[in-house]
Specification:
The protein is an alpha/beta fold. It is built from eleven helices and 16 strands. The protein folds into three domains: 73 residues, Arc Repressor Mutant, subunit A, CATH 1.10.10; 123 residues, ATPase, nucleotide binding domain (Nucleotidyltransferase, domain 5); 141 residues, 2-Layer Sandwich (Nucleotidyltransferase, domain 5). The protein has a five-stranded mixed sheet with strand order 6-5-4-7-11. A five-stranded mixed sheet has the order 14-13-12-15-16, sandwiched between helices. It has a three-stranded antiparallel sheet with strand order 1-3-2. A hairpin with a 4-residue loop joins strand 8 and strand 9. Helix 2 packs across helix 3 and helix 6 packs across helix 10.
Length: 389
Amino acid sequence: MKINNDKVRSQYNLLRILQAVWKNHGISRIELCRQFDMDKATMSSITGHLINLRIIEEVEAQKVEVKPGRKPIGLGVVADFAYVAGIEFHVKGIRAVIKDMHSQTVYREDFPFDIKEVNIREAFSSVYGEIERALEGKRLLGIGVAVPGVVDHERGLILKSSKMGIEEVPYDIRSEIFDHLDVPCFIDNDANCCARGILADHREEGYSNFLYVHVNHYPDMPESQNEASLGVGFGIVLKGKLYCGPDYTAGEFQTIDYNPERINQLNLTRRELIDYGQDADLQKRVFDDLASHVALFVNVFNFKNLFLGGRLPAQIPDLQDLFKDVIDKNWLYHNVRECGVHILDEDRMSPALGAAGMFLELLFTVPEMEHSRGALIWQEIFGDDLIDY
């Protein structure tokens, strides 16, 4: 990163310290000095300024080496400094959540809607109003939005979403909705939001290379629409960053096998989709096939962790072992393949939770250039006071 002036340098130093405190609750000033090769006076000035802005506070120090002398004081982001929301569009309506700065969920609610392009704005506005009421005047920093389909998150376009009736012409959700709100909004598809939510929720573990597999299952869909009742998408994280591909289609999944009667991604007929929710043998067949596909990706890209989330089948109790075994069998070499397999139920991860986590993850990003979306939000809140230290 090329730093051109004192103002940019001051912002850069402040934001990377803020990110480190957010990722390492209880980190001490001494540890921060070591991490950033910064003198104590400068560190005290920056952290003191962040405390005065009430973004961070002193907390019990974590990971302290026992040495003679005064015990270090830890630092942490103030949980209720502000809040972020996550909104998820799905085939049966909208789910909304609110998280604090620690990525802890303080509110969640489901709203039934028949989501189509013609009523996206109306539905969003209704749910946004409910979020504002739930906050009761507390500060909302912004909203993350998750949708099923292909999303250009840079331009705020839903390029394609069969579940939302968006097929030929992209839907410009930024100009239709986001630009009319008084808070910033970020959008991505459901699996990518969940992957970014994992980066936020597990920030202290420092996961940097992993595959997230998101499974959607909506039983009781009308037979004419049941091709949308079951779906799979991937979220890919490499070197700590979400990989979307040049056309934003990275993670779009289609089984390798071909069946002329197939009507969805998973090589199932319409009859099988109707039976899926109650047929344990069919669920096992589907997930055996999915595990084989996933193992190929996990081993080719040398992912160190695999996360499975969404609406997973309760009738396969050994899902974690199933994926571990197939990954091991697919591994070329004789050494043990070390890949953690993690099961996330809907209470721990959903696209709505992931979308709120995505907003936090972007908020606490250190800019690679003079401006980033997170940096612009902090500037909007504090103006020049942000770097007045």
